[in-house]
Amino acid sequence: MGAGHAHKLYRHGHSPVHALPPHTKLVAVFAFVLVVVSTPREAMWAFGLYALLLAGVAYAARVPAGFVLKRLLIEVPFVAFAVLMPFVARGERVDVLGLSLSVNGLWGAWNVLAKGTLGVAASVLLASTTELRELLLGLQRLRLPPLLVQIASFMIRYGDVITDEMRRMRIARESRGYEARGIRSWGVLAKSAGALFIRSYERGERVHLAMVSRGYTGSMPVIDEVTASRAQWSYAFALPFAALVVCLLGWTL
């Protein structure tokens, strides 16, 4: 998979959560999200318990609450959609603070906000305790199609390459006195985007030729074999198992 690749979501640490093999964390988070989605929306107390479970994981991983909350801003578009649901949904209406809102819309908004926020929070904790390279190794260990793993690997690595190329082009424009102002600058920006595409395409061809010349035949060699003990699997599944108990109580109570 190549050298390690740090990302902005990752928070370096030496906690027990950081030490877990990546494929165990991937399966645990997936199972946790499935349990959360399966919980009836009427069991509002259950979602509070899920949040406490994630808070416990964050505490064990030594990830500050501010770090997680700041990265939860990615779900703002979904929050805006949920806020609109009580106003546009049909069915029985109820007055809240002088506003006529749909009962089904209120439940739908709560369902989207609660389950979406918990899912995003679990993903943030996964990303903050697992490096990208480890995530790719975990996906490989879980027998994800090798081609998909390679595509994800190349996207991660060459995303930064393209970003750095954009930064150099911006510096080159600014060093020549160019400043983007209004619609008139769109032509220059469009030409820059075209030049960036050509450069990226040419670099991709050069990288592919270099890989073929070194014996690449369509599959990447497995350098690190990731394994997990029974104890590590048990530790990783503590979160989804506890969530499953809460979910069952939510359906029975």
Structural classification:
mainly alpha
- List low-confidence stretches: 1-5
Shape: globular
Q: Main sheet: which strands, in order across?
A: 1-2
Architecture blueprint of SSEs:
Blueprint: H1 16-19, H2 22-38, H3 44-61, H4 65-71, H5 76-88, E1 93-96, E2 99-102, H6 103-129, H7 132-141, H8 146-175, H9 186-213, H10 230-236, H11 238-252
Antiparallel strand pairs: 1-2
Structural account:
Keywords: Cell membrane, Membrane, Transmembrane, Transmembrane helix. 70% of the residues lie in helices and 3% in strands. It is mainly alpha-helical and 253 residues long. A two-stranded antiparallel ribbon has the order 1-2. The longest helix has 30 residues, at 146-175. Residues 1-5 have low confidence and may be disordered.
Features:
mainly alpha, globular, single chain, 2 strands, two-stranded antiparallel ribbon, 253 residues
In short:
The chain has 2 domains: 16-138 and 227-252, no CATH class; 145-214, no CATH class. 70% of the residues lie in helices and 3% in strands.
